[in-house]
Amino acid sequence: DLQICQHRAPTCCTKKMEESYQAAVRRERTQSIQALNFELKYMIVGHITAFQEAFESLLRFAENRTSSLFETAYRPMAKEAAEPVKELFTDISLYILGAETTVESAVLRFFDSLFPLVYSRLINPGITDLSEDYTECLRLTRQDINPFGHYSKSMVTELSKSLWASRMLSRALSLGIEVINTTEHAALTKECSRALVKMQYCPHCQGLTLIRPCVGYCLNVMRGCLASVSELDAQWREYISTLEYLTNEMAASHDLELALSGMWNSINEAILHAQLNGPQLSATVDKVCGQPRHQEGNLSSANIVPVKEVTEAQTFVMAHASLNNKRREFINYMKRSRTFYASIAERLCDGDLVMRDRSTCWNGEDVV
């Protein structure tokens, strides 16, 4: 009653043993593919972590630099500006990780929160009435009167270009893991598991437990079994090219590191622009939001000297070099894996599974 290992000679197999063999080949094939995938998956997972650490290091550096700007140059508003600064960098981090947000909304929300502080602490430092309604009016007015000139829009443009590639790379790496995981659990067809039993276990039914399959026979069976996985070859090659493109984009004109490290300067220029246009802004705000109460003896905003440079350059250089090195290492490794899905049958037939020398081997019907 054998269904797979039918042979003219007497046999020591039963139908139940054939069923056990089919379960065994399915288990072994999954384990073999997992073993092949392990290094590739390990590299991608490792680089997801490494890239994320490098991104976070650069974001922390840029955030510290921006906070230092307020503490050094704009001390009257430094304490209140801390929360908007923190929110801005949290939003950027979430954007890189793939959250449903935009760079534009994050940056403009920051400037909306910044304007009431700039207006009441720098342009009109004597204002005492900063009620919720008045603050909200200032926030909404920011969008109409554009107190920060072109600097807010320029910051959106610069960051959008550089962060886009980082966001896409982060998403692409996660997609790579998903593809690899899916191929590990690709179900074997009934025909495939029967072919694998015939190749690996039918010799046992003749008592030939040390005979292994012939190389050509193994390749034919594996290519048939893994046809659906091999079809990923063209898309995998395209995927590697996309990773290469994204890593080059990050390192080229849309340089993430330079955009982040220059944020403090853009914010500084935006605040200076608002201060220079203080009288016109005050006139417009008074019309829209009304005149707030002032205390006697106004502080002069001329006393505030903006910083031109903030230290910590060493931290930035290290984070920049670290990210560049990781990009190079990663893409060089991934380029070597271009043929991963095209050569999967050959790799599974390598090693102990088949007979490599000129000795006798199993061709599916007999020993040759």
UniProtKB/TrEMBL annotation:
Main location: membrane
Superkingdom per UniProt: Eukaryota
Protein localization: Cell membrane
Alphabetical list of InterPro entries matching this protein: Glypican (IPR001863), Glypican_CS (IPR019803)
Membrane topology: Lipid-anchor; GPI-anchor
One GO location term (cellular component): extracellular region
Gene Ontology BP, a term: regulation of protein localization to membrane
Keywords of the record: Cell membrane, Glycoprotein, GPI-anchor, Heparan sulfate, Lipoprotein, Membrane, Proteoglycan, Signal
Keyword Lipoprotein assigned: yes
Alphabetical list of Pfam families matching this protein: Glypican
Family, similarity comment: Belongs to the glypican family.
Its biological purpose: Cell surface proteoglycan.
This protein's name: GPC5 protein
UniProt organism field: Onychorhynchus coronatus
